Amino acid sequence: MSPLTYILGWPLLAALVVLVIPRNYRFVIRSVALLATLASLLVAVKMFCQFDAAPAVDGYRFGQIIPWVASLGISYHVGVDGINVGLILMGAIVAFAAACVSREIKTFEKEFYLLLLVMTGGILGAFASLDLFCFYFFHELALVPTFIMIGVWGRGERKNYATFQITIYLSIGALLALVGLIALYLQMPAGSRTFDIVEITRYFNGHPMALASQQFIFPLLLFGFGILVSLWPFHTWAPLGYGSAPAATAMLHAGVLKKFGLYGLIRIALPLMPAGAQQWMHVLALLCLGNILYCGWVAMRQKDLNLLIGNSSVAHMGFCFLGLASLSLLGVTGCVVVMIAHGLLAALTFGLSGWLREQTGTLEIEKLGGLLRRMPFIGAVLIMAMMAGCGLPGFANFVGELAVMFGAWKSLSPFVVVAAWGALVVGAIYMLRAVRNVLHGPLDPVWAETRDATSLWRKLPFALLLVALLVFGFFPRLLTDKINPSAEIIVEAATATPVGKIAARPAQ
Amino acid sequence: MNAALMILEIAVLVLGIALLLLDLWTPPARKRLLGYGAAVALVVVLAYSFKLTGETGFAFGQAYAFDGLALFFKRFFLLAAILVLVMAAEFSDRIASGISEFYSLILFALAGMMFAASANSFPMLFVSLELITVTFYVLTSFQRNRLASLEAGVKYLILGALSSAFLVYGIALVYGASGTMDFAELAGKSAALKDQPLFLLGLLLVLAGLGFKIAAFPFQIWAPDVYQGSPAPATAFLAVGSKAAGFVLLLRLFNTVGLDVTWHWEKLLMVMAAVTILYGNLCAIPQRNLKRLLGYSSIAHAGYLLLGVAAMSPAGSTAVLYYLAGYLFTVLAAFSVLAIIIRKTDIEDVSGLAGLNQRSPLLAATLTLAMVSLAGVPPLAGFFGKFLLLKSVVEQGGSYYAYYWLAAVALAGVVISFWYYFGVIRAIYWSKDPADLSPIEVSLPARICLYACIAGMLFLGLFPNRLVENARAAVLPPPPAKIAEKTAVAVASPASIK
């Protein structure tokens, strides 16, 4: 059996176990969740280390296929290449950290851990899937718990509004993508239709899709997946949703699940529909500036720490889109690195803000201040996270953002200038201002009773995420060496056929 | 006449009459147990139906067809009736008198549905539909001391009679134009008749009559009121059985008779489907009464099911069958929970669900799963059904562009529906200060039914393979005429799109 099946299977199995544990056995429920996510994490680390040695079939390692709905060509097919191996590792790290910080949940713990485990299994399954149906299925499996968790355990006055907003936005995005995926499936000839991504890619390599179909399907996928990744101007659900969500949910969604849309674009939309991609990339490049600049600008004006982090997380997605829009090897590689780095970073910052909220009961920046004195550990980690968010060298974010900018320079140089300004100047302003207002300055006596994370167990999730950021920041080759060969195949497919050539082909 | 083919229907009818007789010798206190007995007997009938797999044949000339489609639906109706009977037994103390008659009427309606599954001629179609409808006139107004129930019965009676009149009138016109009432003979003649206004009007009126059964726009007016007023088990059977009977007739009629005619009706069906979806979903948003909410939701689901009919392809029919199977478990789960809650509290309002997760975690979980499945979220049955329907519609988009718009409307409907389905879940789990937190006990048979519904929803969502194969085999193979017509349309289409 593939290690991937264990990685996504442990949390789902644990969810079943939690289902039958009586609700007053809180410690047992929490232990099961922690153990399952830890087991996933360990397998994921092992898989990441063994990646280079494993034999590749069709370019994918650790593959496994089990037929599911044979008559429709649906199967459970998992496998990794350089692009998703890092994402799965990142997802497993964040999931374990999210289970650790869920200690703050005091009501309906059984349901919370159940949903958390289902969400974890769904996220990891979506990234591991090599079957379009599974890919979508697992994503939905992870998405719905998000809504319920925000609705039940969320905080803030606008919780209900946020719940419905995120539900409707993400459902529309997911359904648009679903129509795109079905349309893609129907592009195959009637006899040999399959949802298997490997087969589909092979087929369309030999028989490029008709231009009209590409022009129809690509925007469906671009905007469907784009809404899921909070592409400007469809981003408004994100800051408010994360601001209202419990820390663990925000960590998993902002950190991992949101990357699903980007992964879908890289894995499916770009290589299969090169003509569509080339036509739409300028639009995408413009929209991604909306992310970087507009949302960065909005983040500067935020008075609530969670909304600030939420907006900055939307802004960072702009870099991923910029990398994709460049359609260059360096850009796509950088995009994947940013996805991983930002996943760790978003989880870290939302985890920290969850800690602050638990201790102080508020996240209004003006009310906080001087907290570094009371919380040396949390404060120090928060400063480092904010620095990573500004793109300080030494953190993985720097590597990714730099690669994106270099990759995009050739074709999109004016965009890069603006993006760099947006990230480095605007980003630095709001990040440093938040650090100053929350951590430095005089300590309000109201906060005299707040506590730092003292025990090893409490420090663990934050330390783990920070260490991962630093490791990938200092040794980026751990990631780029794996990503590069796979990204090369995708970029080649996405740029291979110039638009004119396909248009000249007789329409089918 | 080939009576052996009708063994299942005969068994059900005998059971219904036997139940009426047994009632004479059963002391009043134990009458509700008869329902469990009837359910067990139906389980035996259902088990026997598996011995008939693969058999085909006709009875009453060509009027009664026994084939894969018929058998699929017969099992479907039997399963629905089993669950509804248990629900009725649970609900029996809310029914003032005549609980045994209530059981028998359910069985007679079941027989009507099973005949409808095999109806292969207009007289058979009409008689079986009347058997269903007349039985439901009584079932809907069974709580004679409740004004709402009587109102529901009267409304159903008036509108049902009206729709029967449409149906008969349509059948008469079709007969007048073609000289036959037999589906098989009509299939041969329909090519010649496809431009005759009388024949078309006749079929249109038949469609109107069936539209009433499935509660499709513009024949949906009765549904919310009747759903709200009827006793919960009757509503459940109406929502599942009566709707499915309408769809099996629609499928059989369109797949055999009206091909040459109805092939050009896709626009009509598409408009019907789109409006039904939007009407049901939009009207469900402000509803506070749970049964009424499910009434509007059932209109919306009739619209989704019409997507598969409008697709006019075997894939579409397969999707309809699959969707109905998932819908059965989902809707019966929801109504079982409602029946138990209403029996205990007599509150039908959404606010009555407050604190349900503390009063009975099983009921709360079942209702939540049912709502999530109705909304079409994996890993439950509703998701895979919607996926198949959507696929069949998008598949036709290549030959006729408007199908893409139909898919878009369906998706808009799905997104709208999240609002009210999640509103129910919200009422269960996070309403403030529930007034009453006394536990609700669930009896063993009801618990078995609830677990069966949950298992059905999950199984169909996680392991769709078997049922997809069965449904695909059950769908009638398209006659040669249709294939020729279809390729002709496909060839002509590139020009017609532009």
Largest sheet of chain B: 2 strands, antiparallel
Question: Helical element count of chain B?
Answer: 21
Largest sheet of chain A: 3 strands, antiparallel
Query: How many strand segments of chain A?
Result: 3
Strand order of the largest sheet of chain A: 1-2-3
What's the short story on this structure?
With 508 residues, chain A is mostly helical. Chain A has 20 helices and three strands. Chain A has a three-stranded antiparallel beta sheet with strand order 1-2-3.
Write up what this structure looks like.
Chain A has 508 residues and is mainly alpha-helical. Chain A has one domain (3-504). Chain A is built from 20 helices and 3 strands. A 3-stranded antiparallel β-sheet of chain A has the order 1-2-3. Chain A is globular and about 70 Å long. Chain A starts with a helix and ends with a helix. With 498 residues, chain B is an all-alpha fold. Chain B folds into 2 domains: 12-257, no CATH class; 263-498, no CATH class. In chain B, strand 1 (57-59) and strand 2 form a beta hairpin. The longest helix of chain B has 32 residues, at 147-178. The chains are: A mainly alpha (508), B mainly alpha (498).
Q: Which descriptors would you attach to this protein?
A:
heterodimer, A: 508 residues, mainly alpha, three-stranded antiparallel β-sheet, 20 helices, 3 strands, 4% strand, globular, B: 498 residues, 2 domains, 21 helices, 2 strands, 1% strand
Topology:
The complex is a heterodimer of chains A (508) and B (498).
Chain A (H helix, E strand, L loop, with lengths): L2 H18 L5 H25 L5 E2 L2 E10 L4 E7 L1 H20 L7 H20 L3 H22 L5 H28 L10 H10 L4 H18 L8 H8 L2 H11 L1 H14 L1 H27 L4 H22 L2 H32 L10 H4 L1 H15 L5 H44 L16 H19 L2 H19 L3 H6 L4
Antiparallel strand pairs in A: 1-2, 2-3
Helix pairs in contact in A: 1-2, 1-4, 2-3, 2-4, 3-4, 3-10, 3-14, 3-18, 3-19, 4-5, 4-10, 5-6, 6-8, 6-9, 8-11, 8-12, 9-10, 9-13, 10-14, 11-14, 11-19, 12-13, 12-17, 13-14, 13-17, 14-16, 14-17, 14-18, 14-19, 16-17, 16-18, 17-18
Chain B lengths: L6 H19 L5 H19 L7 E3 L4 E3 L1 H24 L7 H20 L3 H19 L6 H32 L4 H11 L3 H18 L7 H8 L2 H26 L1 H4 L3 H19 L5 H21 L3 H32 L10 H4 L1 H15 L5 H16 L5 H29 L13 H19 L2 H10 L5 H18 L1
Antiparallel strand pairs in B: 1-2
Helix pairs in contact in B: 1-2, 1-4, 2-3, 3-4, 3-10, 3-14, 3-20, 4-5, 4-10, 5-6, 5-10, 6-8, 6-9, 8-10, 9-13, 10-13, 10-14, 12-13, 12-18, 13-14, 13-17, 13-18, 14-16, 14-17, 14-19, 14-20, 16-18, 16-19, 17-18, 17-19
